[in-house]
Amino acid sequence: MPTAVASQFSRRTPHFEFDSHAHASPAESLSRWRDNLARSWDMGLPDKADEDRFTARVKMWKLEQTLLGSGEFGPVQTRARRDRNIRADQLDHYRVMLIRSGQFNCDAGGQQLRLTSGQLVITDMARAESSESACATALLYIPREPLERALPRALDLHGVSPRNACASLLAEHLNALSESMPGTRDEELPGLEMATINLVAASVAQTAANEEGARAAVECVLLRRARRHIDGNLADEELGATQLCSHLRVSRSTLYRVFEPVGGVSQFIRERRLSKVHEILSRGGERTQISRLAEAHGFKSAAHFSKAFREQYGYCARETPRYQPLNQVSTSERRFEDWLGALMH
User: Fold this and answer.
1) Run of H or E residues at 102
2) Which of 45, 62, 200, 289: CA 20 to 30 A from 240?
3) Is the link from the previous residue into 75 a cis peptide, with omega within 30 of 0?
């Protein structure tokens, strides 16, 4: 069911729009927006009476590796990104949010934040968070590796709210960039993206990490290295804790501590295998025989694969929806959930 409003821009850069006023009633727009977010966030309204006043306006643009956009929501809404959401969408990105107006209250891994107009917050989408807000925002989704390469050292960025000269420049930059995107030429996008990532890195580089924060950052690096190894060896039947300890040169206790927030080593490997199979099945074109695909990604039996796939995605493998490249699909055929999913493809 289409949920996005048709594009008003004559440009090739893929973009998405959602406007609650395009639907028959606030209740219908709320239902469709909640459906858009379902995989990545649990969304609700604290006061049921506010359902008749729900409004949402969202615009997003796909650059090279990042998503840039803006959003405006009312009245107060809640969102929670739980372990099951993290496992469902497998996003390994940072989200940078600039509060343009209104109030945004956030709990990022126990870090309590109350943000108002002009303030920024960065959250790690591989970790749980919750929020309550009624605000207008500028948004940026950045893959983990490009941002961490731009940092001078490992930092725990979950719940960081930079407040320095670079952060002020970043806020101005995000405002200007989101406003100018309709007129931006495609050949300008790579340079704009790199400049934006570097500005985000500069705004947080001055944030001093205490010992606990430093340990968390180091463990994030270990998890990233482990994930890279796992993704490159999904078909290896020997892939597991012993192999990872040898590759990372860490003890088993350290490995288990690193993987504890994501459900453990075995669970994480299973979910990465499922995610890769899901990615392949979601592509256009003729599909590979599912049983062979499962075997090629480390599943020893079709029955085990089928059960695991349904548990993770809520539908069987043959029902996997197909994603087309964003620049081949009209705005009216895309959902916001699909745009987040496209970050992984």
Assistant:
1) strand 93-108
2) 289
3) yes
The domain made up of 60-210 is a member of CATH 2.60.120.10: yes
In angstroms, the CA 178 to CA 138 distance is 7
Nearest to 5 by CA among 322, 336, 338, 337: 336
- The torsion region of residue 62 among left (phi > 0), alpha (psi -120 to 50) and beta comes to beta
**What is this structure's pTM?**
0.65
Cα separations in angstroms, 206 against 164, 193, 202, 219, 263: 8, 21, 7, 20, 32
N-to-C CA span, the chain: 22
Rounded CA separation 138/116 (Å) = 13
- Helix 252-259 and helix 211-231, axial crossing angle in degrees, nearest 10: 90
Q: Copy the structure tokens of residue 331.
A: 């705005």
Q: Assign domain 211-319 to its CATH architecture.
A: Orthogonal Bundle (1.10)
In the chain, CATH 1.10.10.60 sits at: 211-319
**Helix and strand element counts for the chain (H, E):** 12, 9
Report CA-CA distances (Å) from 54 to 46, 243, 301: 12, 51, 47
SS3 50: helix
Domain limits, CATH 2.60.120.10, in the chain:
60-210
Q: What is the mean pLDDT of each run of 10 residues along the chain (345 residues)?
A: 34 72 90 89 89 90 90 92 89 94 93 94 94 94 91 87 85 85 82 88 65 54 82 89 90 89 89 87 71 84 86 85 57 59 57
- Give, to the nearest 10 degrees, the angle between helix 252-259 and helix 265-282: 50
CA distance 288 to 281: 8
